[in-house]
What we know:
heterodimer; A: mainly alpha; 15 helices; B: alpha/beta; 6-stranded mixed β-sheet
Amino acid sequence: MPQNLNKALEPFLIIVGSLTVSMVLFGMFVAAAGADPIEVYQTMYRAAFGTSFSWQNTLIRAAPLMLTALCTALPGYLGLIIIGGEGAVVMGGLFAAIAALTMPAAPPMVVLTTMALVGMVAGGVWLTIGGVLRHYRAVNETISSLLLNYIAIALLNHLVTSTFRDPESLNHPSTHHIGEANMIGVIPGTDLHWGLVFGIVACVIAWFLMHHTVFGFASQIAGGNVRAAQIAGLPVGRLILIICFVAGAAGGLAGMVEVAAIHGRANDTLNANYGYAGILVAFVARNNPLAIIPVAVLLGGIRASSGLLQRAHELPDATVLVMQGIIFLVILFSETLYGRFSRLQKQGVS
Amino acid sequence: MTDRVPPDLQAQGITKRFGPLVALKDVNFRLRSGQFHALLGENGAGKSTLVKCIMGYYHPDEGQILLDQQHVTIRSPRDAQAFGIGMVYQQFTLISNMTVLENLVISRAKLNPIINWQQEEAHLIQFMEKMPFKVSLSARVSSLAAGEKQKVEILKQLALQNRILILDEPTSVLTPQEADEMLGHLRAMTLAQQLSVLIITHKLREVAAFADEVTVLRKGQFVGSGKVSELKVSQMAEMMVGSEITAKPKQRTPRSTSVPKLVLQDIRIKDDLGVEVVRGVHLTIHEGEIVGVAGVSGNGQRELVEVLGGQRPATAGTIRVQDHLYQPTRKKIVRHKMVCLPEEPLQNTCVGHMTVAENLAFRNFDSAPHAMGGWLISRPALRRSAYGLIERYNIKPPYPDTPIRSLSGGNVQRAVLARELSADVEILIVANPCFGLDFLAMEEIRQQIVAVRNRGTAVLLVSEDLDEILELADRTVVMFNGQLVYETTSPAADLAVIGRHMTGHMA
Lengths: 350, 507
C-alpha cells in the first residue's frame, strides 16, 4: 500500500537529508579549520570502512553504542526521554567487576554469566530509579536520569579509590583485575570481541519485544496515549518500570562487556561517553531497535576515524565530537519537519 | 477613563456555520448603553460563538454588527478593543509570576520600547482611585485569590478604556460570595452609565439578582429575550431547555428485574488543581437500565467518568460491581465486563497514529486469537478481527491499516463502539457519545446504546445534551456542583424542574 511506503519514506528522507546537511555544515567547519572537506571525508571513510582493520575498529566502537542506544530507545516507546545510559554503563561495569572479584575460584563460564547478570541488574535498577521517580512522584525522567549519571560516576570513583581499590593501580585508581581467564574472548578469525554479537542480538530481541509481543503492544498504547491505556486498564506504572529496567539492563550489559572484554577492571574509563553517544544513535534511529544497528555502525565509524583525522589533517581529535554534535542538533531540528511535506502527506491519503 | 457613555451594541441576523454545522442561525441581540445583559443557554447553544463573532474571533457568514446604529466591521479582537469592546474569559489570562501593575501595563497593544514604570504606576494609581474596587498594584498575581484575579481581569479591560465588557462565565471559578461582590460592582458601574455588561452564564440566581435584561439561545437560535424584572426564574429555565420533549424515547423492552449492577457510594474526587469537584455521589444502576446524568458541564461529570474509566483515582468512596469491590484494572474490567466510552474518543481512548486494526484490539490483544501463547501478537489475527468489526459496524474507509486519526469523528466513534460493544457488556459508562457528530451517526450510536440496554446492560449516560438524556434514559439524575441534586424517572420528567436544578436554582 502506498501509505505504508510513505510511512517509511518520510523518516528515511528526513534522516538522510539531515545527515547530508550535517555533512555540509561539518565540511564548512573543517574548511574553516584549514582542511579540505572532501579529503577529510575521504580520510574518514578510509579510517572507518576502508579496510578490514578499520571495519573492526569501527565495529568495536559500535557494539556498546547499540546497547546504550537501547537505554534511550526503549523508554521512547512509552514517550519517556531517558538519557541515563551513561549511568547504566558505569553501574553495570562496576558491579560486574565487583561480582567477578567475589568469586575468584569459579570457572570462567560461571563468572562471566554472573557478571552479565549482575551488570544487567545493576544497570536496570539504576534506570528504574528514574522510572519510579517519574511514575510515583512525577519527577521529570530526563532530568533525573541525567543526574543519576553523575551519581553513578561519583559512586564508581568512590569505590575504586576506597573499598575496591587495587593498590597497584597507582595513578589510575581501578579495581583488581578480574583475571585473564575470565575475559571475554574474540570472535574466531577476527579481533572483534563478542560484545558486538551481544549488541546485535539485544537490538533484535528489543525490536521483537516491542513489535511482536503483548508487552510491546501494551507499551505502544501507553506511549501513544496514556488515557487510552488507562481506559483499557493497562498497568501503565508497571510498564514504565519494566521498560526502564530492560533499558538499563542493556546499558549495564554494555558496561559489563567493557570490563570483561577490554579493560579487565572497573575504573573511570567506563565513563567514556558511550552512554551519551547512544542517545544520538537512538534519536537518529527514531527509537527503532533494528535501525539502531546501522546507525551505531555509522557513528562507530565516525568515532573510529578521529585518530587518523588528527594525523592526516592536523585536526584536533575532538573534531569528530564536533561532527557528532552537529548531527545531534540537525537531527533534533529535523523533528520539526515531520508532517510538513505536503506531497508526502497527500500521497499517503490517496 | 473618558466619561462618554458606552455605545449601544446590536447584532442583527447573525448566522455562523462551521462546515455543515449551523452554530448560529439568524440571531438578533441588543445590548443597550449602560445595560447589564445576561446571555443564557445550554452548552452548545451558541452563546460563545455569538460573542466570538462580536469580538472578531469569528466572522459571521451573514448578519452585521452595529455600534450606535452605525455598521462596523470587527476583524479581530484588536479591532474590537479599538471600538471599546473587551472580553473577560472563563480562564484567567494573567501572568501569574508578575505583579498586578506589570499585568495591567503589558496588556496594552502598544508599548513603548522602554517602559517608564514610575509614570505607569502613577497613572494606574490615578485610574484605580476611580474604580469601585481596589487591588494592590504591587501584589504578585500568583498570591491573589480567584476573586481578586477576576477583578484584575476586569480592571485590565477597564484600563484599556473599554466601555462594553463581555464576560464568559466569569463566576465559574469564584465562590458565591466572591461572585456576588464582583457582579455587584459591575452592576453599580452599569447603573452609573460607565459600562455596559454582557455576561454569559448558566446560573439563573445571578441573572435574577444582577441583570436588567436576558437573551436566551437554544441550539443556535434566538429563543427570546425580556426584562429580568418581568420574568420568573422558572420561565427563564424553561426558555433555556425548551418546553417540550422533542425527541421520542427509543424502542425499548421493559425491565423485568431490578438487579443492581453498579453501585457508587459516596464517591469524592479532586480535579487537577486539588479542588474537590465530586462531593459525595451515591448512585445505583440496575440491569437493563439507562441512567442519564444531566447537568451543565463542569459540575464534576467529567471527573466522575474518568474515575469510572480508570483515568483518575477517587479520593474517597467505593465502587461496587455486582457486589464486588471494583478497581479499574484490566483483570477486573474483563471479569465484570465494564467498559467506558468517554467523550472525545480519539483523544481519550485511541492512539491516533496506530492503525484501526490495532485500535480495535485494545480490549483483547492479550487474549486468543490475537495473542498466541498469551504473549506473541498475531498481526494476521488482528486484521481478521478488524475486518469483521469494520463490516459489522460499517466503519469507513474499510481499511484496517489506516491510522485511526485519519478517520472522521463519526467513524472513530463507530470504531470505539465496535471495540467496546461487540463483546458482552455488563456495564457501560458513556459520556457525550454524540458530541460533534452529524445527525445520522448520532441516531445510529443512540440505537446501539439502547440495544445494549435491551440486552440487559446497565448503562450510565453522562451528557450535556438534555434531549439525548430524555430520549435514552430510563431514569435521569441531575448533577450540580459535584452532587446529584435531583432524580426523576423519564416518563415523569419535567423539563422546567430539571432546568432549575441544572442551574442550581432549587425551588
